[in-house]
Structure prediction request, 200 residues.
Amino acid sequence: MVRRYSVLLIAALVAAPFIGSGSAGAAGTVIGKCTSVKGSTHLVPGLGHDHKSQTGTSPDTGGNNPGPTPDTFSGCSMTGGGGPSSATFTSSITSTMPLGCPHILDPSGPPDGTTHIVWNSGPATNGSVKVKQTANVGQVKVITKFTSGQFFLAGHTTKAKVVFMFSIDQTSFDCTTAGNPNPIAHVNIVNQGDAVTTRV
Prediction:
């Protein structure tokens, strides 16, 4: 049960860097998509018994089971053709609400942060990120708003939504001992469905 609840929390803290997922719906015009988005995040001070504010930084360099997943987009294309086909990224996301495991995200204080994406062609992209919990254990929705660079267009709002799953990238962790002697600090993530970017 501890692991199941931890899934919700960790996925929220590591999902920040990514652009969209699933269908665009009525919220805007689809301008592009990526079929794969993967990454890793280092959580500080990490999730344990005692609830503490957390910062997630990507990429991670300290995981060991099986090791950090490279922080990448791939299979990317623009609607109508062209555009970058892949990217690497860095990101930082913070939760001011104290978090531990087990713990479910409070909708009144979702984690937020920033991301910087370097595409294989064209300028880089900067964005702001917010994280929301879904109804499913192990999934969170990440909403990214592009603030400058590629895909940003003045006078319009370019947003994306993504659902992510996670895996813990360390051989052991402890969610039950006070003082957090061995917190969850290293995680890998992967998108569920295509990554889709829309503009209104």
